[in-house]
What we know:
The protein is of the alpha+beta class. The chain has helices at residues 18-28, 86-97, 115-127, 141-148, 159-167, 188-207, 223-229, 233-244, 248-264, 296-301, 361-372; strands at residues 105-111, 131-137, 170-174, 211-215, 267-271, 277-281, 287-290, 307-310, 314-317, 325-335, 338-348, 351-356, 380-386, 408-413, 427-432, 436-439, 442-446, 449-450. The protein has two domains: 15-244, 3-Layer(aba) Sandwich (Thermophilic metalloprotease-like); 265-285 and 315-450, no CATH class. Mean pLDDT is 85; it is low at 1-8, 27-40 and 44-81.
Amino acid sequence: METHAPRAVFLSYASQDAEAARRIADALxxxxxxxxFVLSARNPTQPExxxxxxxxxxxxxxxxxxxxxxxxxxxxxLRAAEKPDYKATAERIVGxxxxxxxxxxxxxxxxxxxxxxxxxxxxxxxxxxxxxxQVLGRERALxxxxxxxxxxxxxxxxxxxxxxxxIQTVDISIYGEEFPGQLDSVAPARIAATGQRSSDVFHASxxxxxxxxxxxxGLYPTDATAKQHGLSKAQLADLYWKGINVDYAQMQAKGAAxxxxxxxxxxxRVTHPNGTNLICRxxxxxxxxxxxxxxxxxxxxxxxxxxxxxxxxxxxxxxxPGTAEGKIVHDTLRFAAGVIRGATFTxxxxxxxxxxxxxxxEYELWKKRYAAAPASRDDFAYVDIGINPNVxxxxxxxxxxxxxxxxxxxxxxxxxxxxxxxxxxxxTGGSINGCTLTVxxxxxxxxxxxx
Length: 451
């Protein structure tokens, strides 16, 4: 059988031709065409709980080159009361968060449901004298990839994506989930292979100095995400946009103060009435702040500093390898379309040595994916503290998120995004509300309240 080198295709089209373009793009997704997965740094394939936590997106090979005036409508549009001022928000994200300036080469990524926001982001880029392209896909096409594309394609080099990573200077991506369980029956080995390919592209982009702004951060308001959090979609949308439209200067100041405490510290301890009791060494470890703005200082530092997740509000670090000891307990850990209850991880000498949870389909699926991951899946990866005052956990909800002020997130596996050296795509862990965190005995978070 004749073989060909992988090829990549950009498809440009006008709004009235959107459906025809979709059919062409579907036809082009064959083994000889590079299927371009461009996924989140902290979650190539799944929501909070596995494979890089709660940040994901699938981008098909079809894309809009330069600016295509495309007019789609979201599959589940926000009601008028939930809908933000996209233009004003886009101006803030492009100008303040990403720091786009004349001459920048900006890739704006999103699902077709996000087209209104993608258009406003793209126009905001143009207004600054920078050059944007739109890369649009459909979340549900991710399942079709695994159903229709042979597994041998999973390990083909992502040559187009790698070249783009070396050309662009800014990446603005919107991540949301309407179909969180669509990959439940996909072979874990395929999840691992495509996740690693995506991680490799992300790591290359950081090395090339690309600034990344990721919009969603596990709070993008869809019906599925709202259900996992025990909220209505309207409640989640309110939290989401309040979290994005925060006072960034004030949050940066809070982040800088917390960074100074961690940078001067030697030991962190995290405790919780649910049985969590973890201690780790942090002396000499770099500390990062995601306060929604990629500053000139961040650009000069490079690497993990070149990232902002919106809604923003995190201070994080990678502990000294081999020093974490204790136990981590998650009352609920978001995974696939549901939650794992009572997820418990035992840590010795910086590695997960045992795991347990209440029986259920989510935990069974987690174990299969865990078994397919490389050995460094067990490495304790990060400590992350939320600092966003606008994102508050509603009483009676199951909301777990990186960013609420006082939230503590702990996890294992890949941690390049946090300044670590573990390059695998697998990661597992999540946020715990109500923790107490101390640095050298000094209380920084008490019962979930940031001091």
